[in-house]
Structures are given as C-alpha cells and as structure tokens.
C-alpha cells in the first residue's frame, strides 16, 4: 500500500499503513478507523466507551440481548463505575457507540477488533478459553487485509501467538504480514475503570510482529494519557499481565501465613508487617479471610496447568489463600466455645459477601466457603450485603442491616467492609443483653471499636 493509497482509503486500516504516525493517529481519532469491541461486561463496556469517546466510531458486540438493548437505549448495565452511565448515554446519543448481538456483523464493519471476554478456569483448574475461541472464529469471518486484532483479556502465555493468530490465519485465508495481532492487557480495577483505561498506568503492548506492536501503539497512545510500554512480543505482554496478579497472590499468601502465627507468637502480626514495610525493600500486603474476584484466584492456573515447568510456589500460595475461609470459621468456632456456645446451636451473621468493598462481584469470594462451612457445622447462617439483590451461591439467609438489632445473633463475621457498614450502631448491639458474643474482624477495619464481645482480628488476634 503506497502513501497515496493510504490517504485515498482514509487510512481505514492502520496495520502496514505507510502514512506517518501522526496522520495515522489523526485518522483514528477522526473516526476513519472503525473499531469493534467484543464483550461488553464490566470491563468491556468502559473500554468500548473510552474507545468511542476517542474515535467516535465504535460498535460493541455482546451475546446478551438485554445488555445490547440497554446500551442501544443509552443505558448502562454496569453499576458503580463513576461517570460511566452518563458517558454511555452521551456516546449512544451522538452515534459514537452502538451495540449488536451479532459479532460477525461487527467484524465485517470494523478494521480494529478489540477482544475483552471472560477467560475463567474449569472445575479442574484448567484455563477455559472457549469464549475467546468463539469470538476469534467470529472475527475471522470478517477479517480483511490491514485489520488489527487486539486481545485485552488475560490468557496463558503463548495464547495470542499460537492460538489466536494461528486460528485467524487459518480461517480468514490471510497470511502473516497481511493482518496484525497484539496482546494489550487490561490493567483495570472495578470502581475506577474509566480512570484506569484513560491513563492511570501506561498501556502494555506486545505484538506477534513489530508492525502489530507499532500499529497497536498508535491506537493506545491516543487513548491512554500515560502512554504505551512496548515489549518484545505478545507472549511477553501476556506474562506481564499474569505476573502482576501472581505477585499479589503470592504476597497475600505470605501475609496470610504470617497472620496464622499471631496467637502462637502472642503479637499483633499486622503491627509487625506495617513496621517491616517502613524498610524500602519490604512490601508485605495485608492478611484477610481469603482472596476473591475474577483475577487473582484464577491467574496462577494460567501458568500452573498449561506448562511443564514446576511452579510449587504458585501452587502453595493458592493453597494458603484458599485456606483462609476455613481459618476464619475456626476462629468463629473458637470464639463461640469460649463463650460456652456450641456452633451447632449458634446464629451467625456474615457481613459482606462480595469479594471487595463497593464492588458488586462475588466470584471466588471468601464469603462463599465461609457460609457453606458454617452451615455444614450446624450454625444458622445469615448474611448482610447492601450491594447484592440475590444471594445465589451462598448458604445464608439474606437479612437487611437494620435486622441486626433484632436478630439476636451469637456471632458477627465481618468479611467485606462495605462503606455502608460504617453506620452499624455497635453501641446498641454491645448493650443488648442478647447481642452478639463473638465478633470476627476479617480486615482490621474495626480497630477503634470498643466492643464487649469476644473479638478476633485476623492478623492481630484477640482483644
């Protein structure tokens, strides 16, 4: 393609475009380069919205008709993302963002394809790439020369090169050098998605060839105010994303294992951790009742399972973190027994079911096994979570926060400290002769509370 040809075509394709990069970026931001975003979930919709506000020419594809209908009507199904609802409404209103349930239609319309679909694990802890495979097959039906495919969802290393690229090549009748593929991982946290995508951190970009890396960099440099970090190849970029999560999982496992020494050492382990962290080479995380969410509990298996290299540290970290719900339940039982209450005769309330405060997400939440184990031990289990409308998956009866004062629970277990719990009237519970006899503080958020019940803070001990 000559420079004149690129100009004539309006630079609809950036891969192998010969115009200078400033001109290419102007074409992208001017809406001449149609973009499709596949997956409009809690990370996909914010990503599609930032693309749309940047280039004004985005079609989002999702297989859920309700999601698509909501977006087409200017609504936002993703909750608790500051600024997202108004941004979606404005983008749909001015035609910058539209949605479809037909990914193949989106593939035919677009020259840049951005994939951000779920990549969970199976019950056997194997990476499940079935959704990704389906989307790549759909993209292949509309892939044309000069198109660029950008993978944002987390995958095992070598997936982009050996699985995504090869399938696109085989099913599109295009060859290497005729289309681009790059891995550009999302580095986004729920509750601050727009901020993160727009530039809280630099965007990592690694392509299957140098031209893929270059073309992807042109696009993300226009979106992300912190710029782009290019790496050697797609596999390196995949590893970057995994390593970020694996570091946290292993670090949290260290904190959780140290927390279990609290009683035997007779110290506040959290105090020791905080003090140790004043040394610049020490960065120990906080202990807690477990690790949840759609990222950290799953990503270790993207290395453990597909590859032959031994990874005992990653496996052990998973075991330690997965053990914390049982450790939490053991402290509930210990506290009840200290008060002369058998756990099978007890009434226990779990406060906070989502994996993180302020985030409506329950995948791998430690509250799930906590409620199941308490129920298996014979306790009557109740739960309060102001973010959830349904409590499917939990062995607990839902109650409102105001019900705490009449429920006459024997134990309260604070797992996820939502902001709403700051209004709990602890003094009323404390002075009630039928109030709780045991309080478990999973996240050390009640340190200043003067509560008469037997109180145990994970990592700090009994007070």
Q: How would you describe this protein?
A:
The chain has 463 residues and is α/β, with parallel strands linked by helices. The chain folds into two domains: 3-232, Rossmann fold; 322-462, Rossmann fold (3-Layer(aba) Sandwich). 41% of the residues lie in helices and 13% in strands. The protein has helices at 3-8, 21-29, 44-55, 65-72, 84-93, 103-109, 130-142, 159-172, 193-200, 210-223, 234-259, 262-265, 269-276, 301-304, 312-338, 367-376, 404-407, 426-431; strands at residues 35-38, 58-61, 97-100, 112-115, 148-151, 180-183, 203-207, 228-230, 347-351, 380-384, 397-398, 411-414, 438-441, 454-457, 461-462. Helix 11 packs parallel to helix 15 (312-338). The longest helix is centred in the last third of the chain and has 27 residues, at 312-338.
Please give the order of strands in the largest beta sheet: 3-2-1-4-5-6-7-8
Looking at the overall shape, the CATH architecture of the largest domain is 3-Layer(aba) Sandwich
Distance between the termini: 73 Å
Low-confidence blocks of residues: 1-10
**What's the shape?**
elongated
Please give the number of β-strands.
15
The CATH topology assignment of the largest domain is Rossmann fold
**What percent strand?**
5-15%
Query: Class by helix and strand content?
Result: alpha/beta
Summarize the amount of helix as a percent range. Answer: 40-55%
CATH class group of the largest domain: Alpha Beta
| Rg | 25 Å
At the fourth CATH level, what is the homologous superfamily of the largest domain?
NAD(P)-binding Rossmann-like Domain
Number of domains: 2
Mean of residue pLDDT values: 96
Largest sheet: number of strands, sense, barrel closure: 8 strands, mixed
Number of helices: 18
């Amino acid at each position: 393609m000559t420079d004149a040809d690129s100009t004539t075509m309006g630079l609809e394709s950036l891969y192998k475009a010969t115009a200078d990069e400033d001109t290419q970026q102007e074409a992208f931001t001017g809406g001449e380069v149609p973009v499709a975003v596949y997956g409009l979930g809690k990370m996909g919709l914010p990503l599609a919205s930032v693309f749309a506000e940047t280039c004004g020419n985005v079609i989002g594809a999702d297989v859920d008709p309700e999601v698509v209908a909501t977006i087409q009507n200017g609504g936002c199904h993703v909750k608790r993302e500051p600024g997202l609802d108004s941004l979606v409404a404005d983008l749909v209103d001015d035609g910058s963002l539209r949605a479809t349930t037909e990914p193949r239609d989106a593939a035919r319309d677009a020259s840049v394809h951005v994939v951000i679909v779920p990549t969970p694990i199976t019950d056997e802890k194997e990476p499940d790439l079935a959704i990704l495979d389906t989307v790549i097959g759909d993209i292949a039906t509309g892939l044309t020369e000069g198109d660029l495919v950008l993978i944002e969802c987390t995958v095992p290393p070598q997936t982009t090169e050996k699985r995504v690229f090869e399938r696109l090549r085989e099913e599109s009748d295009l060859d290497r050098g005729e289309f681009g593929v790059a891995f550009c991982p999302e580095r986004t946290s729920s509750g601050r998605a727009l901020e993160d995508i727009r530039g809280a951190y630099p965007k990592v970009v690694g392509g299957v060839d140098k031209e893929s890396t270059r073309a992807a960099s042109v696009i993300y440099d226009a979106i992300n105010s912190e710029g782009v970090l290019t790496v050697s190849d797609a596999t390196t970029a995949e590893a970057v994303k995994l390593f970020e999560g694996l570091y946290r999982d292993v670090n949290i496992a260290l904190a959780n294992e140290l927390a279990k020494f609290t009683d035997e050492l007779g110290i506040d382990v959290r105090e020791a951790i905080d003090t140790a962290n004043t040394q610049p080479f020490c960065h120990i995380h906080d202990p807690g009742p477990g690790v949840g969410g759609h990222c950290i509990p799953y990503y270790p298996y993207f290395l453990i399972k597909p590859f032959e290299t031994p990874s005992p540290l990653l496996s052990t970290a998973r075991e330690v973190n997965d053990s914390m719900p049982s450790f939490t339940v053991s402290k509930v039982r210990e506290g009840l027994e200290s008060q002369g209450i058998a756990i099978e005769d007890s009434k226990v309330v779990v406060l906070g079911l989502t994996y993180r405060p302020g985030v409506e997400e329950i995948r791998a939440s430690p509250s799930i096994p906590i409620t199941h184990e308490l129920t298996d031990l014979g306790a009557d289990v109740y739960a309060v979570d102001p973010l959830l409308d349904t409590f499917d998956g939990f062995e607990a009866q839902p109650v409102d926060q105001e019900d705490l004062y009449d429920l006459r629970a024997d134990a309260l277990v604070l797992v996820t400290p939502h902001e709403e719990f700051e209004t709990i009237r602890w003094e009323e519970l404390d002075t009630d002769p039928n109030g709780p006899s045991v309080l478990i503080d999973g996240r050390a958020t009640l340190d200043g509370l003067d509560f008469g019940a037997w109180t145990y803070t994970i990592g700090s001990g009994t007070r």
